[in-house]
Amino acid sequence: MMSERDKPLVGSIFERKPSSSTSAPSVPQLIGSTTGFPTAQHRSKSVFARNREAEQHQFTARSPRSAEPPIVQTASRMQELGPSEKRDSDTDDWRTRMSEENERLVAAMTEEEREEGRREIEEKFGNNIGELLRRARMAREADEKKLKKAATVASLESDLVHPLPDNTIHTPSVPPALRILAPGELSSGALSPPPILSTSSTRPSTPARANRKLRFADVTPNDVHIYESAPPSPRKTPLALPPSSGDDLVVSLGQWKGHAPISIQSSGSSEPHLSAAPLNKDSSVTLPSLTSEGPPEEGTPEDIRRRFFPSLPTGDPSLVWIESTPLPDLTKPSLRFDLNGAPIPPTLSATLPTHLGLHHHAEGARAGYTLDDIFLLVRSTVPAQRAAMLGILARIVRRLARMRHGISRDAEGIEELRGREEELRKRAIAMGAEAMSERGSLGSRAVEVLWEALVGWDEELMDVDGAELQGDPPQVASPDQGGESDVMGDAVSYLPLQFFLPQTATIFGAADLPRLSLVQLLAVLQRLAMHSNAIADAITNSPSLIANLLHVFILTSIPPSEHAPLPVPAAIRLLITLASASRASASKLLDPADALLRFLISPPNSSPYSLSLATTLLTHTLNLYSTFARYGLYAHIATTAREPLTRLSSYIFSLECDSRPLLAAYISLLGAWTTCASDPHQTTPPHEILWSQISGWGWISNLATVARKLKQEHADWGTWAALWNAEAAWLEGARHNGVRGGVEEREGSLARLRPAFAGGAEKEVVLSAITSLKRMLSEIPMGYDSDKSPGFYGEMNESALVLSAVIRLWLACLPLDKKPPPETPFQLPFSLLGMLAIFSVTHPFLSRPSSIPSYTRPLLRPLVSFIANFVLLSRRLPNTTSGLWLAQLSVTLMRFLPGDEDAARDMLDAIIGLVDERCLNDYGWSVPSEVWSRGGLRILAPFLTFDLTPHANGAGSDGEDEEAPRVRVAPLIPTPHSLKLATTQRLPSLSGFSFLFARDWSLLPLDHLLRSGTSPVWRNLPGDWDASETDVVRATLLLARIVRESMLANGTPEFAMTRAEVTFSCMKVFMLEHGQAQGAPSASGEDREEVFRDGAVGELMEALLLPFTLVASSNGLSASATSDEQDNLELAAARFLGSGTPFYQFYTDFVALYDAISFGHPLFSALLLPPLSQNYAPDYRKLLYDDTAHVLGTVRTPVERVIGGAAGGFLWPVENVPQVVGAQLSLLVGRRARVPIEGFVRWMAVHHIAANVWPDLREDPPSSIADERGRKLLEALVNQGEYAVVREVTLYWQRREGRVVLPPVCFDLKPVRRRNRLDWVRFWAKSDLVQRMQGLLGAGDLE
């Protein structure tokens, strides 16, 4: 008998059989009613409660409840089968009968009937029905085998079953193979009762549901045990389950389908029991040991079974879902992220619980989301899930951006994504743009993704102005930064603007996103506008975008209420960026800019906003007006808003205003308006502001008071530069608009400036700026350094601006004549400025602007402006000679950037005016008088300055096609001439960025001559221009020579034209006869002569090429093989020919032209030879030695007159191309050329044939192949060549180092080397060849 504590929680469950007889329905009788109406009842209990009590009373009266339910025992297999097994047996019998019947029917059918039946089945069920039936049969047979095996094991268990007591209820038995011992059995030998929520196998199957009755045992509080639980969700409570019972009987729910085999063991008792055998080492399922004394590891399947299902045996089929699944290979785990975008270590992702929200993906066994999961779930139809994934994506992008910038803390765990940053950035941009139109948190998350991918990606660039950022990502301190870039494409341009901009306008119009999201979207627009001028124009032209933007961020309520949004200064900065992108955008922003007058009406000290916000809004507004003024636009606001501007001026110049940015912005605006007033015809529309107006307003007197507020600290340098530029603009305008050329204005300024620069703060500011700029350039000796901070380059920029402004002010104080002044306007450290200018112009920071990131290029402009202004100042110094100033002008010309066109045109005019007969007499040159009689160098001005000024007519013939307006960058400091011409204020991106002039700028007219049929310069020549093609070539060669000589004489040889550039330019003179530019305009009507035959032209070309010949070059006669990229003709020709025409094609035409018209012209012949150097591809040598060998008979150039860097470049390495070697041999034996070759060509052929024959001249190690080639060449030479040729090849020798050996010394072989060569011939040659060689290499020559 069981004790009171061991009583089972659930007693026996009986299902009563339905009654055999059913009574017919009867009319219900009303009890206790005599009137026919129901008796009134008290409603203290509900109908359901009363019915439930009545049923319980009836059941208790009919069947008294037992306090102890009968024990359920396992019955023998031989007892009566249960209903479930009967159904299985019936199913098998039915299947057997049907199979036999089908076989009989098929056997009785004919072949045609069988085929017809097969076709009908396939039409109805498909062609694969046979395969499906075969698989079903195989599966059924496999199941039958398993049942038979289970029945065999069951027979073994029948001997282990205890005798059944009398009061047990017999139930169908279960195969003992499924009897796995529960944890309670292992410890106490007793089994736990079945769980209260599981279904017993003793339940009979019957359709009579109405008579089912449940009987429960009496349960006391001591019979309930609370099992501790760690549910997947923290919200769930512990589950109440019965404690382990002492009963050793187990009722299983089915067959166990685990991996552990069952064995019969003895556990120390007299009776054996069944247990699971240990798993082998190859099993993919890990189960805790059932014989372990300690508790299983928390979270394992066994731990879950013990906690929640202690009564079920291990491996029960109903618990398959808690079993561990094979883990993925941890050696190559996929990168996963948590909800904060942080990477999850692979070891941790496999152990995190499921309630953290990190398992909502396909691979539920691991916590966290892969990038593929995130990009997939971003497109989810559930908004909350989509928003969560966008939040994760935003944080991942932030980590990627920080990793690119070398922040190691954020790179931990995501190193495998290095190199994929741009790819993931593109995908994030696409995902954010797709979801940005959604409302609520989803739209906010999408905007956050766009902000991280566009703004946060390179947030340090958001303060950059003056350049496009397109196509040139910043250089970052990343260890593996080598290939990132824009090789994969431009990520910012990947944003679909045709979708993004209308959606942005809609979002601003609705303004239903949080304020932070709207500000982030505004920053995204700012970054897009900075990226390229095309995107900025698209933003400006987008319908309703600017209007909605102003409504949200600018046109807020005045005065602002407590909860109303405040104006955002970043919106005005966006307008500045859009206006600086193009003149067209600026013109469209003029009307919206009227809304900014609200910030101009009241000074910051009386503004309804806070002082800092009002000051910032006003500063940005003034900067926008300055941006308009650089185009000559919106200058009328100076008159329209005269009254508020006067109040503003009083505030800014007072001591109450301490904002240096506001002060600098206001002074810069006054300087820009002064420039507009200097020439009112250049404004749009004209005469928007007049000189008389600004003179009457007294701006110059206001500027004079500013200097008293400023100090010499670095924080005031920007304001000093703005002040000096504004005063310089006033003095420059007074020259043209003032009385007597502005004498009174200059005297008034000099009276104040002289004492200030003699010992005031101005002097200290200039000296400090010189020291600062020199120091910072010295800290970057190799040029741009990406490790330097933006503040470093910002200080350099301010230093150069200060020096440029003070020199401009000094020049503005001089009269219009260009004579040296009797006294300097005010004192400056001229010697320090001169040394700094030379140091700056030759510094590598200015040498390779294309290698500088686009966001840094605006910093070059103040430096170039400083150099250009100093060169103009240098002319006014007494010690500057004409030659020195010519060199300074020429060097500065090659440092001008886009936007410096006005200064470049002025310097070209100065160069042309400087080079005259007197200048050439100083050099001791004699120039034909024809050069000066036809206008001198002034005939070159249209060709040199044509690219500096936009023209209406395009390149089409007769001007029928007009080209699109040329992009013209506004200068750093606006000039009256630039107001109408400027189309943008930003430097172009990488694809269009370069210096205005290359080293060979002086030879530009030759390019226009060669393209006279297409060059538009011929349609834009002045009406009085009259020069011939020969005149232009003479003047061009003269200019090129004198410019080069001046640079060499004044210590700037690195700016002089290289050997390759001069050589190619002289080739272009000869190519004028190729038909590319025949019949250049000439009014003389004389018979045209070939230009290269002109005596002056030939003399000038000889003078240009002489320093580059072997005899004149410093290393020209060196035997060492050298290679210099500056001497590469292919590189020199690339700028003129373009990427589509290789230099080899040009050289082929050049050789053909020589063959046609040269008649052995010596200079023409010399220009054929440079590509024969071993530094060029063998195609050039094959063309000349093989394909056109007949022309070499007229090439008689001596070795000393060959154009080249070193003779060794033509000698080594030895020629090894069989075609070229064979052609050289044919030339020597007289088979190719019309006449015997001479000079340099003969020397080259002898050298390479001899070096292929004789082992002592070869470069390669001794080999049978080289010996065989040498033997064949020698035999052919001896058998076919003349004695003189054979002798030269046989006795030729040469050095590899030192000075090259020239003919005839190179044909005098030493006796020792003669004997060695003769021994080599004797080793392999026949007697007749040995005899001939012995005559040459022996004691004497064979006559």
From TrEMBL:
Residues 334-400 form the RPAP1 C-terminal domain. This is RNA polymerase II-associated protein 1 C-terminal domain-containing protein. One of its GO terms (biological process) is transcription by RNA polymerase II. Transmembrane segments: none annotated. It comes from the Eukaryota. Residues 1140-1250 form the RPAP1/MINIYO-like TPR repeats domain. Residues 19-38, 263-272, 281-292 have a biased composition (Polar residues). It holds the Pfam family RPAP1_C. Residues 1-18, 83-104 have a biased composition (Basic and acidic residues). InterPro entries: RPAP1/Rba50, RPAP1_C, TPR_RPAP1/MINIYO-like. Residues 197-209 have a biased composition (Low complexity). Residues 1-121, 191-210, 223-246, 262-309 are annotated as: Disordered.
